[in-house]
Amino acid sequence: MNYIEKLASIRLVMKEKGVDAYIIPSSDPHISEYLPDRYKCIAWTSGFNGSAGTLVITQDFAGLWTDSRYFVQANEQLAGTGFELVKLQAQGRPEYVTWLANKLEKGQLVAFDGNLAAVAVAQAVQAELLPLGIQVDGHIDILADIWEGRPALPTAKAYLLKEETTGQSTKSKLSAIREKLKAKRTSTHFVSSLDDLAWILNIRGNDVKCNPVVLGFLLIDGDKNTLFIQSGKLDELDVANLNASGVDVLDYEKAFEAIRQIKSENILLDPKRTCFAIYDAVPNSVKIIEEMNPSTLLKAVKNKVELAHTRNAMRKDGVALTKFFKWLEENVGSETLSEISIAERLQQFRSELDGFVDISFDTIAGYLEHGALPHYKATEESNATLKPEGLLLVDSGGQYVDGTTDITRVISLGNIKPEERIDYTLVLKGTIEGSTAIFPKGTRGYQIDAITRHPLWDKLRNYGHGTGHGVGFFLNVHEGPHVFNSAAIDIAVEEGMITSIEPGLYREGQYGIRIENLVHSKTIESNYFGEFMDFETLTVCYIATDLVDKSILDQKHVDWLNQYNSWVFDQLSPSLTADEKSWLADKTKAI
Q1: Does 159-298 match 3-146 at the fold level?
Q2: Which of 312, 363, 394, 500 could bridge to 468 as Cys pair (CB 3.0-4.6 Å)?
Q3: Model-level pTM?
Q4: Quick one: residue 191, left, alpha or beta (phi over 0 = left, psi -120 to 50 = alpha)?
Q5: What architecture does CATH give domain 159-298?
């Protein structure tokens, strides 16, 4: 079926089931950002393959609600599908619910598959529509009736990490979680989110592209811990090691049955990381405590072992990037290079390093106007050929057994215009301001976001995405709960967190600029005025200086840039050939 036929089939099933509006979120039973093929429902239905969006289908309208990161991509991918782009005013808000409230009449029915909707989303739908007399059913899976050949659940093997890698045992992590539960006056907790599960049990897998996670659920019920995972994914030794850590292993499919049989007085569930189907399966006699998973914040604060490994992974990644940018500079214009081919070459450089497992997300190699699309991924149709002119943006990362990397650099391929140089320097100035911020303990991410944006605001420029996101340890490249963006999220920046700092500037149809490093937040001093923190920059890759308009920078920015590039050279040169070392020495010369 093509997309028009799929839409017609959905509407036919809707009519048969008495559904007036059907919601399809971008999610899975674990409320993941990146999905196994089985749950890529929006891509299968509409052709849009961005990682954030919601489809809403009625008999006379079909729309995709998504944010500014995806406007251009969505317009292109939805063309001729029967779906229209509806632009979100605020990232992450379920604005389609208000649209439904205005469109539907009392007695009409809105439905969705509760396996794909987070509790928080389902509650937002119910809260706005039920008072209007509009019915809501969260247990209808229409795609199951029409998706022929739907991919099965992934069967890749999972494995356990050693404590020398993680710095903390599973027993210790479970104990820490129980202490957090005790403070909430409960001893029962159900974990659906895959990165939380992976961190708690020191388990990794290959069920989701670029994310080393395994599909599973974890039930903590008093002293009893149960992992629900597909049979055969763990070998006997790993099962025995989990048993020794106090964790039983049962089949994945038995998780819902276990929830229905809960007999405790209450249970803690994270409404943003638990699907509605799980939530609704909890017996009515059990009180649900809706709180963030305790492991989410514990996981975000890296221990000394994780930080030491991460620094090593950053150095390795820097070697791969140095080789890549040298190769690119020497070959652009002399051989045919495209956005796809350079992304493949970068992955090859990374794959030659010890401990490389995968890339941490699909590489964004955006040449000229494609650089203005923050979440661009080249396709055979869009794949641009590089020429010795203009700006190239490369946002990429690697998954290593000793850490996760995420970095963005912009380089000149030649013939740079004065406006591009100014924009680049302002973005760099923002990166430096964020990276060098000193702030009191308790500072929130929106305050770091504002500090970073200030140099661009001064020149009446801005960007539509957040300034930074948390990064996992050999885990998801996007990790909560902390973020650096304009939303007033009440999560403090804590010592040990790893976060990106990535301001940008985008001129649609022309070029895009983003300069991204990962930083580690740390305490520097406690005094009469309180406890103060700053950032340690972890990313080890030169920042191009040939694009810099030095007149825009203060001396402190020049000093930081020179010191950073000098540090990069010192960190990487022992692992480079003489030719590579000479090339990098030129790139890191003081300005």
Answers
A1: yes
A2: 500
A3: 0.95
A4: beta
A5: 3-Layer(aba) Sandwich (3.40)
